[in-house]
Design goal:
Layout: H1 9-28, H2 36-65, H3 72-87, H4 90-99, H5 108-114, H6 127-154, H7 158-182
Helix pairs in contact: 2-3, 2-4, 2-5, 2-6, 6-7
Length: 190
């Protein structure tokens, strides 16, 4: 039986970052027929998507909790549904990273370093502004997922690409709903 030494800060300092990554990868990784470079690039892209998914989930719930105005019930329920759909992506994304033999996000700190979707900590946001901001954020997430899909295509990772295709469709649907709600129609409703 092979004896392993736990990786400590002292071990990391003496081995260097690359050695630590290699040791962690050997201990945690299932084998994949994807290339080393491919799994590294796909995992990096997926972890970025995961960070944005968590950021969008929390912003959606924030706006759900702080919604007000004459359309409160409709918007409150819509954002609850959208938040649930967004959260449902988190586990499959993280598990996909692990399936290809890489490490996924560990903490809120990692999320904040990788997210592109900005937080909104304002004490009050107009309902229309909330919905417009979420529409833009969903569109941004879709763009990031498309870029990740391209990385998957480059490395022939059809499984991850397939998952992304469904999530892109869901993201476009969320953005469409938010667009229609915030669209300024003419007096007859069109």
């Amino acid at each position: 039986m092979r004896k392993t030494t736990p990786v400590t800060k002292k071990t990391q300092a003496s081995n260097g970052h690359a050695s630590t990554d290699r040791l962690d990868r050997e201990r945690l990784s299932p084998r994949s027929d994807l290339s080393e470079e491919g799994t590294r690039e796909i995992a990096a892209a997926l972890n970025g998507v995961l960070a944005d998914v968590f950021a969008l989930y929390l912003k959606t719930k924030n706006f759900h909790w702080h919604m007000s105005g004459p359309h409160f019930r409709d918007y409150h329920l819509l954002l609850d549904d959208q938040g649930e759909q967004i959260f449902d992506m988190t586990d499959p994304i993280a598990e996909r990273v692990r399936k290809i033999g890489r490490s996924t996000l560990h903490s809120i700190g990692e999320i904040s370093r990788q997210q592109r979707i900005s937080d909104n900590n304002a004490s009050y946001v107009d309902p229309g502004e909330m919905l417009a901001e979420l529409r833009e954020d969903n569109q941004s997430l879709v763009s990031r997922m498309r870029a990740t899909h391209e990385v998957c295509d480059e490395h022939n990772d059809v499984a991850t690409a397939s998952l992304l295709e469904n999530w892109i469709d869901e993201g476009e649907r969320r953005a469409w709903f938010l667009f229609e709600i915030t669209r300024q129609g003419n007096p007859d409703g069109h």
